[in-house]
Automatic annotation (TrEMBL), chains A, B:
Superkingdom of the organism of origin: Bacteria
Name of the protein in its database record: Helix-turn-helix domain-containing protein
InterPro entries recorded: ArsR-like_HTH, GAF-like_dom_sf, HTH_MetabolicPath_Reg, Tscrpt_reg_IclR_C, Tscrpt_reg_IclR_N, WH-like_DNA-bd_sf, WH_DNA-bd_sf
UniProt domain IclR-ED: residue ranges: 64-246
Pfam family, any one: HTH_IclR
Keywords, sorted A to Z: DNA-binding, Transcription, Transcription regulation
Gene3D superfamilies: 3.30.450.40, Winged helix-like DNA-binding domain superfamily/Winged helix DNA-binding domain
Domain HTH iclR-type, first and last residues per copy: 1-63
Length: 256, 256
DNA sequence: TGGACGGTTTCACGAAACGGAACGTTGGTT
DNA sequence: AACCAACGTTCCGTTTCGTGAAACCGTCCA
């Protein structure tokens, strides 16, 4: 593992469940020798990638990441478009929506639109989910060739719940279903009591893929409502897909 | 210069005026040998710090920076509070406002609130300004001991305009004025035709400092309006300062 | 006081980064 | 087709840096 890989691993620790790190926490998280951890955190701080929390020995992300991250988000017209579309769908249906991207075997929400109903799903920003065991993840995995999915999970996977795919064959079958219908669903899978429906769009110009997702409380959302929000999602995705040239949504399958 | 320093320098290139980089551009920007630049960009990409724009040889920030940057912004209740306050002031006065932080000898806007007037100042997000030659920068420098300001500018500075501080004595005199009044101003300094007023708040718990700034078109903003928005800014800053324990704004000097 | 704990520093050696030069690729011009 | 320019990659010998284990340091608590 190179020094840059180590630094990137450190940065990946930060998210909804981790706002700062100590040497010992890094040792525990990454299995790194204590002296390496101490020196790496200090070198990253000195470079500006991290900063200390006041005079403490705690390290958090540094300011220089903010502008670069902003460039990432703004460089992508696909993200911007998908996000605007999702905002409209959320405003109409009242459920929580987010845009998710895949990073390796995980997915992360990068934008978030809280719903307006009394009972709604909480923000998932900054939380990493296993791609194979989430609607957004499966919608994105379905856009990969089978060989690539097999290579990604060459070491196998541990299902987090009984409703998640149980093995490679199960996963591939579900991805084939996603490809056929053009959307993915999840129920009680990453989080209890929550259902989700997700649609992926790929920008053929640069290969970037995003997933638009609506998450809803399973107990209070009946079949008619689920059909309605799925239709809105598929319509919205088709509109963006037409703009960026993603042929997958050219003929939209009937929701059902 | 260590490898991490080099990587951080690359990330600092990204902002409002740079959304992606090639090997040659990096050579030009950082004066780095070509082979080093090629290897560095590739190593950063392989680590996830950067990614290629499609199949091109252009590199842009990688997704992993987004969550870490978000943690930076959310970890700071000071930024959140200052931003909310500024939003209210902007809504009232109609001019453009932003929150700025200092990084070394420069300041960068991290949040932005466009004004509502017909003539308003454009967004400055992602643009670095010289701290000594901007209102936000001077409001933040005034919160440093004089020795620290001298050390920061040990190599001297080149004034970007006739209204900017011309030498160290001039800068120190202005910073003393900022300390006395608790706010900094700029006119025609970083940008022609624009005036700005800025107030800094320091969170004594972790030493974090932010500057709240309102920027306005100099030609159409009369003295009464300037006094009014300065009063709003000072009132807002005093309110936040009381919450975080910054004693500087405990007794607010009369604006004038 | 002694021990536990978190973090830092030291050390010798192997790994990685260095910069210049050669090489490979692409596109444009004659 | 041959040539040239520009960009990016790879090679090579040398130098620098990162490695992990162990020692050390500072703080806190029984």
């Amino acid at each position: 593992m190179s020094l840059l890989d180590a630094a990137a691993q450190v940065l990946r620790c930060y998210g909804a469940d981790c706002t700062d790190l100590t040497v010992t926490e890094l040792v525990t998280r990454l299995g790194m020798p204590k002296s390496n951890a101490s020196r790496l955190l200090r070198a990253m701080r000195d470079a500006g990638l991290l900063e200390n929390v006041g005079a403490s020995k705690r390290y958090r992300p540094g300011l220089l990441l903010v502008d670069a991250a902003r460039v990432y988000l703004r460089a992508s017209s696909l993200i911007a478009r998908a996000d605007a579309m999702l905002a409209r769908i959320v405003a109409d249906c009242g459920h929580t929506g987010h845009i998710a991207l895949r990073e390796g075997r995980e997915v992360t929400a990068i934008t978030d639109h809280p719903g307006t109903k009394a009972l709604r799903v909480a923000s998932s920003i900054g939380t990493l989910l296993a791609a194979f065991a989430s609607a957004t993840g499966r919608s994105l995995l379905a856009r990969l060739p089978e060989a690539e999915v097999r290579a990604l999970y060459a070491a196998g996977f541990a299902p987090p719940s009984p409703s998640a795919p149980q093995d490679m064959a199960d996963l591939l079958r579900r991805l084939e279903e996603v490809r056929r219908r053009a959307y993915a669903t999840a129920n009680d899978e990453a989080s209890r009591g929550i259902g989700a429906v997700a649609v992926a769009i790929v920008d053929p110009r640069d290969g970037q893929a995003v997933s638009l997702c609506i998450a809803y409380p399973a107990a209070t959302t009946d079949a008619a409502e689920r059909r309605s929000l799925l239709a809105a999602l598929l319509d919205g995705a088709a509109e963006i897909a037409a703009l960026v040239g993603d042929a997958t949504h050219a003929v939209r399958p009937r929701a059902g």
